Amino acid sequence: MDRKELQKALTESKRVVLKIGSGLIATANEANEPNGLDRSMIEKLRDEVLFLRERGIEVILVSSGAVAMGRSVLRKTLAGYHPQSNPGLSRKQALAAVGQARLISLYGEIFAEKGLAVSQILITARDFRDRNAYLNIGHTIQELLRLGVVPIINENDTVSTEELRFGDNDLLSAACAALLRSDLLVLLTSVNGFLINEQRVPVLTSITADVLEAAGGPSGPGSGGMRTKIRAGQLGLRTGFRVAILPGRDRAPVQSLFTGEDIGTIIGSTEPSHMNARKMWLLFARTRGAVIIDDGAVNALRHRGSSLLGAGIKELRGAFAQSDVVEIVDAAGQSIGRGIVRAGSREIQASIDAKKPLSYEVIHRNDLIIETEIG
Ligand SMILES: Nc1ncnc2c1ncn2[C@@H]1O[C@H](COP(=O)(O)OP(=O)(O)O)[C@@H](O)[C@H]1O
Ligand SMILES: N[C@@H](CCC(=O)OP(=O)(O)O)C(=O)O
C-alpha cells in the first residue's frame, strides 16, 4: 500500500491518542542517576497537542514517567535512598505513588503556560474488563474533551497486580484508542520508528511473523520497547485505528507527520473498519467459566456466522450467571472465542443433564467474538 495515501488519510482523524513513554520522558544526570522528567519534552508535547486541537482534533495523552519521577524525588530528598536497578512490583508501585503527583503537576504547569488545562486519569486493565467502569471512563473523558481539558492517562500502578497489569503504556494506550474510538494512536519512541536491519520500515499493513520477530524489548528505562508498539499496531488493524510510531526526539514529529513528511512507521489500512462497540468490549472483557461445544457448533460459529444454540453445548466449566462473558472452547480444549450468555450455568447444566438442550440461542451472534477477530 502507498504510504502517501495512508498518511493523507491520517490527517482526517477526529480523535488522536498520543503516548509518550519512560524511554523519552525520563532524564538522568551525568552519573546516570534518575533526574526527573524532561521539561522540554513536555513543552514539545504541549505544542503538538495545540497543533492538533487547532485542526479540530480531540487529543488524549497517555504519559509514563511516574516511576522514573518517584526515583528522582526520593534520590533528592531521602538521605540513604539508593535506586534499585531491578525493582520488584511493590517498589515500582511505591515509586509511582511518589512520582505521579509530581508528574501531573509538571504537566499542569507547562500546559498552563499556553492556556491549556490538564486532568489526571488513572486506570487499570480491570477497569476495561468491567463494562460499567469502562463506560464511565468514556463518559468522563468525553466530558473533559467537551470542556476543552486535556486528559492525561497513566496506569493506576497502586492497584495493578501482576496479572491485572498492562505493565507498559503502549498496550494501555492501544486499549484506550480502541475503546475510546480514536482514529489514530501516536506512539512516540526514542528511535526512528520500527527498524529491520537498522532500516526504518515506513509502512506496515499487516503484522507478519518476521515483523514480530524483529520487534524487540526496550533498551532504556521503558518496559515495552518495540514489541508492544507492534502489538498495539496489531490491535489497531483488528479494531479500526491506525498507529504511527514516531521519533520522539524530532523537533515536532506529529506536525511533521500531518504536513506530509516521511517519518516514522505507520501501521494501518487506508479504509479501516471500526469493530462494533459491543464486540470491541468483548475483546477486553473478563470471562467467567466456559462452554465446551461440539465440532458441528465450532463449524457453525467459525464458518456460517451462526449463533450458539443449546444443542451444541457438551459441557460447562465453572459457574456463571446470565449476561456473563464466557470462553467458548472446542472439544480439544482450545479456546475459539468468547461471548455473552443468555442463560446461567445452572440452567444450561440442567438442560444437558436432562438431555433436553435449550431451544434458544444461548450466545447470540451479535454477542460473540471468535478467535479470528481476537487474533
Ligand atoms: N526492530 C526494532 N526497531 C526499533 N526499535 C527496537 C526494535 N527492537 C527493539 N527496539 C528497541 O525498542 C525501544 C523503543 O522503545 P522506547 O521508545 O525506548 O520505549 P518506551 O516507549 O517503552 O519508553 C528502543 O530501545 C529500541 O532499542
Ligand atoms: N505506569 C508507569 C509506566 C510503565 C512504562 O514504563 O511504560 P512504557 O514507558 O510505555 O514502557 C510509569 O508511569 O512509570
UniProtKB/TrEMBL annotation:
Its main location: cytoplasm. The keyword Iron does not apply. Its EC number is 2.7.2.11. It comes from Leptonema illini DSM 21528. Pathway: Amino-acid biosynthesis; L-proline biosynthesis; L-glutamate 5-semialdehyde from L-glutamate: step 1/2. GO terms for cellular component: cytosol. Catalyzes the transfer of a phosphate group to glutamate to form L-glutamate 5-phosphate. ATP binds at residues 19, 223-229. GO terms for biological process: L-proline biosynthetic process. HAMAP family: ProB. The lineage of its organism: Bacteria, Pseudomonadati, Spirochaetota, Spirochaetia, Leptospirales. Substrate binds at residues 64, 157, 169. This is Glutamate 5-kinase. It is found in: Cytoplasm.
